[in-house]
Amino acid sequence: MSKELMKIPIFGIQNAGKTSLIRSLQKEFSAITKLKPTKGIERQKLKLLGKDISIWDLGGQERYREQYLDRKAEVVFSDVDQTLFVIDIQDQGSFEKSINYFKDFRDKIADFSPDAKIHILIHKFDPGMEQDPENMKMLEVLKQKFIEIAAPLKLALYHTTIFNPLSIIHAFSKPLLGNSTLYDNLGILFDDFCNKNQITQMLDFIIIFSEDLIEVASYFKPAIEQIKLRDVAHSLFQTFTKKTMTLKEISFQTDFTVVEMKQFSSNKKRFYFTYGFDIQNSSNIETVKGDIEGLLDAVEKLMIYF
Fold first, then answer.
1. Which of 4, 37, 160, 218 would disulfide-bridge 167, Cβ 3.0–4.6 Å?
2. What is the pLDDT of residues 125-150, one digit of tens each?
3. Domains (ranges, CATH) in the chain?
């Protein structure tokens, strides 16, 4: 495969939710309920952030998994840049099968693409599940299990749900972006800013989006509820769909959150600096705008290297 084309295969057992993740990324939500199990390998080519990307959706039925790990191993696992492995957190009966598959997957990645970056998506972690301590305990146990199996390979771990599209954008964006240094440095900048003083600590999130709704960097308040982010995501999608993105500044609010967006350019590409306050703290938006302008100046200097 030409190295001008970024290869991102997506693995997981049947019904883990791989195809629904891709549909969500493409904002094809109406098709999700009609999905059938993927048969074999389905390839999709996308152009995002000026990059040509080949996403391989690998069917999770046992007969296909055996082929990927045996006679098709070189085709599937060679020339991989980034790879995602999906597990359904709501199907505890499938954990053992998923973990065993991941062990074999890890060995093949190490053999054929040792420099590939691995991203674990703990999927179907739906809004409200984070409020149950048992769910959070199970989430941490799964994360530690994957980290132990993957060693010494490094992992990035995410929990995702189709009911909060921002969680899916967040999980896919780092692999699609490919520039993890910029992503991480901007994340540190946002984290420092949001812990700067009492006012900036009231920010729920900061996200930079590209024109094609890829997340370039983000900060989320640790305790933010997924339901709030779900509503923000749906309003964001409507904003992008309505073609209002030529505006320099955009404001909207949901039942819980006031959102501000500021357009800026870097290397002839258009981006959107987006931040949100809990609606109960919205009176502080004007106070923080001066600080936000300073933060945006720092962002633009870093984005030169994008």
1. 160
2. 998 898 899 999 999 999 999 999 99
3. 5-177 (3.40.50.300), 180-303 (3.30.450.30)
